[in-house]
């Protein structure tokens, strides 16, 4: 196990590791060792640990002991293979490949065919009996080494290769003869020398050492760092390096390379899924530079290897108890396994596969719940294209990653990023993507390529990110230089609208309308599990959600301000309302009534304004309590600054000035302007708002409390079950809460006496200021519940104005790694979270039965939900659409905690 590792040991043979050593050996190395342990055909090799990488990255050089350890393992490998690295007559060749703990497809570097040189290429030709193969392998080494290790622009090699094919009038690499490849090798070496300022190294050990260092360096390339930020992978893990004896798929038609999945990663269905390419090396498949054939075709190409592969795939899936992603090579009829890992999958596939594995007895329901997550569920709730819409089909490719994406066609990553930042929705169209396209892929709504299959770079990365992707649409001729795409007689220029369906592989001209997702229809009670594909998905979601609801401790409420939102939230599984923002009830026609309250100069004017608002508020609450009958409804009293209910100061000033110039000034406008100036604040979010309003404007909070109490009494007299909770916002000291609560208790008592009802209304507060969190023990003496307002708490802890900073410098903070994710998106556990934790502990120490919840948007964030479970909150509250996500994650948090406790 990883905790028993030798701290002085930096290199492990494939026979020494196992799948549990991913922290040390990376995912690729750990799984190569596991397959070796299972007796599967894995080429011999060894793994340099992530610990060696960390030393290299911290000090700028490899550990002193590493060279000797590599030499010892290389000598053992040479003895086993009965040949030496780079020897002239019969060279041992190796690959040097990255392999981090978490899969980062295409983000880090690989070099194949190390050990070839001007001297050994002839020996390889003699040993293999295939001169063309030897020179093809040599040109691949120079190309990969030049780009990866020496930093040569890869386009220079590609252009030379394209020119060589054009000169012969051919379109695929395999039609180049040995003589053509010899010329390319000379040309590639000249490119290296001109661009790198040194000759291509002829010493095999120098090649290997430089390649190892290059793989270490690739951990911190811009694209790797960007991918880690996107996938929330820690930046301090480092990568392992795998040195593996080469096996060759480019030895002719009886050789080849492929990628296989034990189930369809797009749908989750069982069957034969993957890509195969004859006479090719592995990078050809992943890069998508040549279109592959379906894996099923291997049965007719090489029945023996196909049958063996099917058996190995079954072995691996049963062993890992999950969908496995497999890379393999066939060398002249001999099957070799180069990699396996738990495969990336689409959201729909994740839910289907989890329930399938339960039915097969491979995992239990608790493990199935851990195999899916809230982000995947959210993806399944996105709309899909309307099957009944009139469309203009452009073509069809491979359905690589599902979803319905519409946007303007762009043909390079720079444009995708630029247009996206300007608010445009774009579809990134390429012949094939490469790791340098990652930023553009993130910016785009979807990705469309004319080459590659389900295992190409575009497909694998898109699935990992949950991006819609269609690959291998061969009918589409993509011209990136002229920024256009042609299909038949139709030309799509940059900026034209296109729609891509990642579930069917169809590509449409123009914008295709969308309809609700079947998963949303299920949550709203409009769809039930049946026999077709959509119903099968719904059935899988239903099963996992049902289990999550059974095991979760956290209740899930909704942020809802009206009956319509409340009813929808209830359909989505809300167990009450955790935040009703009453300020939203004062918009529209009621704004003038609030203006009268603000402009009131006398007690009578103020009381008349409040009396006019009371029945409207009462009617609002009656509707809300009816829609949430039997469930708690937390009503927050008026919170925002009063100036938000008044006209904009600039617009009003201009209006008054123009009226005065015409000598027809409106008296009400003059009073409004005076009030606006009086209420104007430099920083209104830290000014006269929340509880401060209730203390400064007599009767304001009393009117709202009366409306709540009278509505609750009305509902109770109608045989309903209202469960109102009154929440006082922006409390910073217990004295504020005590004053408001004393007034509220008096009003509630009056309503009870007048209506003859026994109202069990509770009164609590929002914890949204650092001082409130720090004095939670005192505040709990006057509060029956706390609801953490983590949006404002984050603003006040960090000193951020959310409306300003997200647009101004958050992008830079994310790029520089100061944030892994915005603290407004996922709770800052170290800062804001520590205040929440301490307030929970202090509040419950004072009042053991204190009810605790959260009503900021963090309540619907998957990672934050786990934190709220851990610190002991009773519920989370979020927008209606995020309720299913919060329910799922609350279940995952509970199941995960149980699993940890049992270990």
UniProtKB/TrEMBL annotation:
Keywords, A to Z?
ATP-binding, Kinase, Magnesium, Metal-binding, Nucleotide-binding, Pyruvate, Transferase
UniProt keyword Transmembrane, yes or no: no
Q: Where is the PEP-utilising enzyme C-terminal domain?
A: 539-890
Name of the featured protein: Pyruvate, phosphate dikinase
Residues of the PEP-utilising enzyme mobile domain? 424-505
Q: What is its EC number?
A: 2.7.9.1
Q: What is the lineage of its organism?
A: Bacteria, Bacillati, Actinomycetota, Actinomycetes, Kitasatosporales
Needed cofactors: Mg(2+)
Member of which family? Belongs to the PEP-utilizing enzyme family.
User: Which parts of the sequence belong to the Pyruvate phosphate dikinase AMP/ATP-binding domain?
Assistant: 63-291, 298-348
